[in-house]
Fold each of these.
Amino acid sequence: MAFGSGFRFTGVKFCKKNISAVGQGSFTFIVSILATNRKAYYLFKILKVYEAGIQLEGWEVKSIRQGRISLRDSFVKIINFEPFLINAYIPPYQRAQGSGVDTRRPRKLLLKKKTILFLKNELSKRHLTMVPLKVYTKRRLLKVEIALVKGKRGFEKRREEKERSVRLRLENDVEEALGMALGKE
């Protein structure tokens, strides 16, 4: 079944890993998440999220589409009113000819000028930082989800971990009780 032959997705989540269809009215597209920065969710409090395009070379696009990218320890910095993704690791494409490529080079992010000015103002005024959260494909394009974040303190991390463990314990207890109730019948 081809997607272009009248088949329409609206807000449906696929069963396959990290693929979902997102739609608004008659306009829909498929989003495939290629990488996430799980450490950022633990270390930072996310205040606002933005979607940005990324300027890449051909071998980088091919490598990212294979899922070979690491956002660990990467961040976004605005230099001369241009946002750059710093310290993101993209290994060389396996079938590429040549060597000597810089796998951690700064990569320019594509945002609207108004958004860049707002982010620069927020970063300087409120002592915040920007980190990438996800890399995904939207239609045929690669996008980076960046977030304006504030660092969590130690007690906030511990409290969040405790709440998570309590929630998991409760879910396990409910599943166990439900399994026992169904088993007895």
Note: The domain at 35-153 is CATH 2.40.280.10 (Small Protein B; Chain: A;).
Amino acid sequence: MVELVLVEGQTKPFEDAIDLEMVKCIKHFEHELVAIRTGRAHPSMVEDIKVSCYGGTTELALKNLATVTSPEPRMIIIQPWDQGVLIDIERALKESDLGVTPQQDGHIIRIVLQDMSATRREELIKLLYRKLEEARVAIRNVRKHFHNFVRDTEKDGDVSEDFAKRLSELLQKHTDKSIKFVEDLSAKKEVSLKA
């Protein structure tokens, strides 16, 4: 969290600190949304999948082991830099929650995305709701941290009770705005999943 000193009557540094922390939560949620597929192939769908490689001694993200491209709208090509991890990458893809079957020819792995079934769409919508709830919780945790900071600062006598109340109201306003933003992002993603 940000190092912050409250000064009576100055809300701008407090609001900037809140925004900085809440933007981190929002950016993480946006990154999570990109990984939920909508029927079109995108390298970000697989690049963060953890691969247990080199005899299980190392676990790396796929993007650290291979080049991931999407030459066609429904295909992802994974070309490992070390052919020895090809089988490990294939295993990690099969065990992931993507619901795809990778095909390898000894040098590269192809993932062909099928049209999503209604069941798969529902699974992805449930995953979307779970990610949305995680984002809400992260934003609320930021609120809790700042609320505790304001309360402790007031208790120490560094700010007045009225100013602490004003900061708490600002904090709630920023929290509501951030939660509304992630809910709007989720609603757009849900529409694209149902399409």
Note: Strands lie at 50-53, 58-61, 66-72, 75-80, 103-104, 109-112.
